[in-house]
Prior knowledge:
By secondary structure, the protein is α+β, with helices and mostly antiparallel strands. It has one domain: Alpha-Beta Plaits (2-Layer Sandwich), CATH 3.30.70. The protein has two helices and four strands. It has a four-stranded antiparallel beta sheet with strand order 1-2-4-3, with helices on one face. Helix 1 packs antiparallel against helix 2.
Amino acid sequence: MTAAADRVTEIQHRLADGLEQIDPYHRLFGRPVSYRLVDGQTLEITYRDVPGLADSLVFGVKRLIGTECLCTVSPQTAEAVTVRFVVTLR
């Protein structure tokens, strides 16, 4: 495995192990999530069908990821948003 793939696996495990602890209202936990490696050095984590999001949850996810990342929130439907975390794997 490459270093980037190892890092992606590590982040996936951190989120799987810790998200339920920091997300008591299941805003992200249990929602459809996808992981996409872009250009071998950037990871895009996308949560769909999210009913809402608090800043504290965003900060908690960033702590779980363990490296600096960006978060964007965009409308999906009238009741749900898409939350995307972009992580540089360098």
